[in-house]
């Protein structure tokens, strides 16, 4: 066999091997829920992990409402959503309320709140007497609301912020505290 032919076969084998590895990685991420290339729904937060405790914090449930955390704004994930026919009991919010807990003011943070489909969910931050929040979002048909945001956009200055998700459905309100604080650094 000529050297040129051997090199051509070696390149073909390497390319085939690379494509198979790439497809294997994509399939693995799809199966674990970390990406959704073939599904029509958005991923739930860290579906590959068994619980939020493996993802920077546990949630602790509480059924008491927390004041008025702010006015809703237009959705950051596609506009207004209306879920018709939602009824029943409100689920306590769960999810990865903050994707990172040590950030600068311009770090992009992903937040997810999972509760009953059609409920309104809001993430609230408290540092001392100051309280700020992400805009209220109506959960989709899977019960999830999503935000991509920066602390600077929502007046979260330098400090240590407690994190809470508040879900509301009709006259029901449930909340969950995130065990880690959001540390905003200069």
Walk me through the structure:
It is a single chain. 16% of the residues lie in helices and 30% in strands. By secondary structure, it is α+β, with helices and mostly antiparallel strands. Strands 1, 2, 4, 5, 6, 8, 9 and 10 form an eight-stranded mixed sheet that branches. A two-stranded antiparallel sheet has the order 3-7. Strand 8 and strand 9 form a beta hairpin.
Question: How would you briefly describe this protein structure?
Answer:
By secondary structure, the protein is an alpha+beta fold. The chain has one helix at about 5-30; strands at about 60, 100-105, 110-115, 120-125, 130-135, 135-140, 145-150, 160-170, 170-180, 180-185. The protein is elongated, with a radius of gyration of 21 Å.
- Rg (C-alpha, Å): 21 Å
The major beta sheet can be summarized as: 8 strands, mixed
Quaternary structure state of the chains depicted? single chain
Topology, number of strands: 10
Fraction of helical residues: 10-25%
Instruction: State the distance separating the first and last CA atoms.
Output: 64 Å
Shape: elongated
DSSP strand content? 25-35%
């Amino acid at each position: 066999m000529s050297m040129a032919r051997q090199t051509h076969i070696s390149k073909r084998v390497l390319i085939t091997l690379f494509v198979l590895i790439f497809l294997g990685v994509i399939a693995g991420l799809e199966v674990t829920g970390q990406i959704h290339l073939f599904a029509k729904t958005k991923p739930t937060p860290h579906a590959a992990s068994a619980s939020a405790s493996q993802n920077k914090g546990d949630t602790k449930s509480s059924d008491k409402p927390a004041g008025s955390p702010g006015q809703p704004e237009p959705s950051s994930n596609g506009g207004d959503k209306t879920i018709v026919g939602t009824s029943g009991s409100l689920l306590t919010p769960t999810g990865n309320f903050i994707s990172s807990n040590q950030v600068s003011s311009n770090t992009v943070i992903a937040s997810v709140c999972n509760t009953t489909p059609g409920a309104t969910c809001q993430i609230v931050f408290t540092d001392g007497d100051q309280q700020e929040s992400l805009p209220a979002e109506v959960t989709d048909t899977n019960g999830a609301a999503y935000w991509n945001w920066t602390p600077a956009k929502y007046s979260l200055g330098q400090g240590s912020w407690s994190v809470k998700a508040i879900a509301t459905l009709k006259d029901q309100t449930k909340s969950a505290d995130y065990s880690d604080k959001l540390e905003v650094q200069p």
